[in-house]
Amino acid sequence: MKTTPAPRYTLVAIALHWLLALMIVGTFGVGWYMADLPLSPTRLRLFNYHKWAGITILALSALRLLWRLTHRPPPDGPMPAWQARAAHALHGLLYLLFFAVPLMGWAYSSAAGFPIVVYGVLPLPDFVPHDRALAETLKPLHGDLAWTLAVVVLLHVAAALKHQFVDRDGLLQRMRP
């Protein structure tokens, strides 16, 4: 006997979605702001906050992916096949970047010789060996991936708004708290 998927995402999926959205936007903003600050206690503190947020995003992304793999999402609803394919591809890219951006930041921090001590109490192992040349390669890659994530997030938001205000198909209701 087949069961029909719920018309909305689960409460856990909704909570993880919005928590990650807020954290990603906030962490991107902090990263953008701190990048050009002169060396100071404020810059060092912001770098630590940025790292802690990145590791938290990584952990929440793993939890979100596990939840998504074990809980069927609601049906896409009526939309052209190309839109459904584009939505699935965009979601796949989002998940890939949820992992790639913080892992690249962790790798950069390790290669640069700056350990990550989450919340000032939990030291993480180096992700890659200390290597200044590698750090110089990874630093812009982390930034490029973060900007790519920002663009993909904007596409995601634009698509959601299009469904809400142009198509008026109620798709956005599936993820509203």
Describe this structure in words.
With 177 residues, the chain is mainly α. It has one domain (11-175): Fumarate Reductase Cytochrome B subunit, CATH 1.20.950. It is built from 4 helices and 2 strands. It has helices spanning 11-35, 41-70, 81-112, 132-167; strands at 117-118, 122-123. Strands 1-2 form a two-stranded antiparallel ribbon. Strand 1 and strand 2 (122-123) form a beta hairpin. Helix 1 (11-35) packs antiparallel against helix 2 and helix 3 (81-112) runs antiparallel to helix 4. The protein is elongated, with a radius of gyration of 18 Å. The chain starts with 10 loop residues before the first helix and ends in a 10-residue tail after the last helix.
Domain module tally = 1
Unreliable stretches: none
In the CATH scheme, what's the topology name?
Fumarate Reductase Cytochrome B subunit
From the helix content, strand content and strand pairing, which structural class follows? mainly alpha
Rounded to the nearest angstrom, the distance between the terminal CA atoms is 30 Å
